[in-house]
Amino acid sequence: MPEDLKIDAKSENRRKLGTAWVTTVFSAAALLFSAYSLWESRLKQSDLRVFVPSVIEYSAPYQNGNFEAIIIPVTISNEGARTGTVLSLELDVTDPKTNLTKRFYAANFGRWTMERTRSGAYQAFAPIALAGHQPLPDLPPTRPPTACG
Predict the structure, then answer these.
(1) From CA 92, how far away is CA 101, in angstroms rounded?
(2) What b/e string do you get for 66-91 counting C-beta neighbours within 10 Å, with b at 16 or more?
(3) Contacts for 137-140 with beta carbons within 8 Å, 24 or more apart?
(4) Can you list the alpha helix ranges (DSSP code H) found in 39-137?
(5) 39 & 56 share domain
(6) Residue 89 falls within a domain, yes or no?
């Protein structure tokens, strides 16, 4: 075998080895990105987050009655990939002077008005399923579960 062909065969093998190494590195990087994408889009646990702005409304429209309404605009979002469920919304309010606590629960969804209250035109609260990476903006009026006192 001539000497020229031996040198060409060695350089060809080195070139193939170098190309294979680069291809392997790019394939491994693509596999890592695919694994991360799978984690973020399908496998990540649900992560429910609540945002409450600083504007809160309170109303006690009936004098000497047990009806109070606290209107809190709430945005609930799911930062995870799996579906998360909101089973209930509760609000504990503590009077700093007397240290008395009153618990309110989300009874209805919708903007509170006296007309809507009289007609009962609210959407009743039910468990909410939030798909991955989805927000749910809503305004649940809250009511105390027991008589005020």
Answers:
(1) 6
(2) eebbbbbbbebbbbbbeebebeebeb
(3) 137/73, 137/74, 137/75, 138/74, 138/75, 138/76, 138/109, 139/71, 139/72, 139/73, 139/74, 139/109, 139/110, 139/111, 139/112, 140/72, 140/74, 140/89, 140/106, 140/107, 140/108, 140/109
(4) 114-119
(5) no
(6) yes
* Domain assignment of residue 119, given as a range: 48-143
Show the tokens assigned to 137: 């903006």
* 32-91 confidence digits (pLDDT tens): 999 998 888 888 888 888 888 888 888 887 777 777 777 888 888 888 888 888 888 888
What are the residues facing 92 on neighbouring strands? 103
User: Domains in the chain: how many in total?
Assistant: 2
Residue 17 falls inside a structural domain: yes
Does residue 10 lie in a domain region? yes
Task: Say yes or no: 36 and 70 in one domain.
Answer: no
**pTM exceeding 0.85:** no
Residues 61, 130, single domain; the answer is yes
